[in-house]
Amino acid sequence: MTEILLANPRGFCAGVDRAIDIVEQLIEAHGAPLYVRREIVHNREVVEGLRARGVVFVEGLDEIPNGALAVFSAHGVSPTVQREARERNLRIVDATCPLVSKVHFEALRFAKDGYFVLLVGHRNHDEVEGTLGHVPGGIALVEDVAQALAVPVPDPQRVAVVTQTTLSLDDTVAILAALRERFPALREPARSDICYATQNRQVAVKALAAEVGVVVVVGSENSSNSQRLRECAEQIGAAAYLVDCTEQLLAEWFVGHARIGVTAGASSPETLVARIIERIRELVGDAVVVDFGEREPAITFAPPKELALLQTSAGA
Length: 316
Prior knowledge:
11 helices; 3 domains; Rossmann fold; alpha/beta; 4-stranded parallel sheet; Cobalt-precorrin-4 Transmethylase, domain 1; 5-stranded parallel sheet
């Protein structure tokens, strides 16, 4: 009989839970339409489910009527976007993950202290765009070791580094090592910027991949943390596939594998994981699902203060 090993921890993190809860509470209190700048989290099922309830996802604030109620996604925005929202008199609820806000604060603090900031991350990711916008002219993006060795800085003695929260631990270690060697006086945050959920899920999927021949990662293509989980599994030697619907699963992936691993990115709902597992069982025949690894302690982030104010006004 085939075993399906279900990774722990997996799925929603505290920042994603918080962001989705913010949108759901606003829809319930104020009704549709509710505007959200960019995808609230990078998961197709979550986005489509909210869209069906009247959430309108937009690329730019110019798509939102003046004075409307709107939400900033979990990935954060730049001060320029915040200023535009004020100019358009939008009623904003900021769903930025507190761990992303932490990176913004670090970048601003380093810049205020006279340091040129290097941001380790992926170009064009929503989170990276927001962080870069906090220190215009005083920050540069570093995507790999080669760029770490070549990026120009005004003063090699006054350089600091922050990172995107959803990066690969292994890749980031190599990039930071290159930066430390090049800039011995490099300033760094007191604690890693890579979020707890990203770290825990990568550690878990590596352990999982060592026990199975194939790993299915439940997550969308534009989810950075889900992509990193797939890469982690491949690095250990397992075949790994990223899916966000049951139709993407292929029976041929599982031929010859007595043990199949399943995990989920931090923006993937458990309901989708359950459907993926059920479809795998249909494809392989008899299969038993076994929990693998330790569950994550419950972590919650406080809602933004503007959410309570809007709920009060809705009930008035």
